[in-house]
Amino acid sequence: MDLKELRVQIDEIDRQMVDLFDRRMRIAAGVAQYKKENGIPILDEGRERAKLGAVAAMANEDMADYTRMLYNYLMDMSRAYQDKLMHPEAADCPLWSTIARAIDETPKCFPGRASAAGRARVACQGTWGAYSQHAADKLFSKPQIDFVPTFDDVFTAVEEGRCDYGIVPAENNTAGSVRRVYDLMTEKQFRIVRAVRVKIDHSLLVNPGTRREDIAEIVSHEQALAQCADYLRRSFPNAKITARANTALSAEYAAKSGRHDIAAIASPDCAQLYGLDCLSENIQISDNNRTRFFCISKSLEIYPGADRTSLMLRLPHEPGSLYRMLARFNAHGINLLKLESRPIPSTDFSVLFCFELETSVYADEFAALIRELSDLGDDMRYLGSYSEVQ
176-230 pLDDT, tens per residue? Predict the structure, then answer.
């Protein structure tokens, strides 16, 4: 048979499969009604295990695994459909009620809260000239910025109410996620209320009169050093590379030291701020070097236009657990923008999965997904729904 004839046969089989799928889901609706009337939970793990084994045994040997995968997905969709029928309103889900209340109560213009002086009080790690300051200036109109030494201090300032908001770098498009920030995201209580992308242009800054051949040590934040690794290998193969807490703090340190054997990697603004000379500009690996910053708050605020959601989930150590979770997103047609695993401190190699979803908070499928995920227990953390400023 030629390709056209084969496709005709596949089309005919697909028509039959769609009809059978519809019939199967209609019967699942009857199962849902029975379970609701008799107080039976949706998931019957023993029944599902037996069913997977049975359908795999029915299949030809070379199709057994594929059949098991197909029915795994079918049963995920069946559970989702039964849950929707048994709980037609998302209002019975405490988390969704919290989200819906935040949508109603959050002011319609960002930012919603400000200090007594009439400006948002924002915590940033570093000092003047830090990229977190650029992110704050991009998000807020003349914010009152409190600079703190570490990322931990940013979260603490927000948790304790000393600042309305905090700005922390989440990830860079060349160097990846900022590990310490993601660790803090697993430990601290906070909500993401907005994200912003900042273009990163790194410069090599030195004290006036410093020559290239004088430089024996280069200081900056570890992410900046990673973003400039190629330049450093080519131009300063023998220099000592020292990671410090922040790019702007590194520039300030170099300026205060007065040394001519040290250079700092920081933004061009830091040259003027700290009286330094710029030996080289745009030394990062890519001209399209951008860092995403999260704006965090102590309370849940969901502003109009929120189309991204961040979640953290701990999944059981068993085959297919991540697949089944991803199937839920797929069943609702929700795009997954980010998936990353982070180790959970003080556990025996347990990991927390960080998800970033692309979906409007006003979409019905978002409410349905939140309800389903909430049923998984205490292993889910909802970090917030927000929009991203480019």
Answer: 888 888 888 878 889 999 999 999 999 999 999 999 999 999 999 998 999 999 9
Cα distance between residue 188 and residue 166, in whole Å: 13
Scanning the structure block, which residue is given the tokens 């997905």? 73
Query: In the chain, where do the E strands start and end?
Result: 121-125, 144-148, 165-172, 176-177, 191-199, 203-206, 217-221, 240-244, 262-266, 277-280, 290-297, 308-313, 335-343, 351-358, 380-386, 388-389
Quick one: DSSP state of residue 344? P
Say which DSSP state 212 is in: G
Q: Which two tokens stand for residue 23?
A: 């019939």
**Cα–Cα distance for residue pair 223/286, rounded to 1 Å:** 14
- What is each CA distance from 206 to 129, 167, 269, 279, in whole angstroms? 15, 28, 13, 7
How far are the Cα atoms of 6, 219, 328, 370, 390 from residue 70, in angstroms, in the given order?
22, 54, 14, 24, 40
Residue 184 tokens, joined: 């803090």
* Residues labelled catalytic: 291, 293
The pTM (predicted TM-score) of the whole model is 0.79
If residue 251 lies in a helix (H) or strand (E), which one and from where to where?
helix 247-257
8 A C-beta contact, residue 249 and residue 268 = no
Q: Are 353 and 282 in contact (CB under 8 A)?
A: no
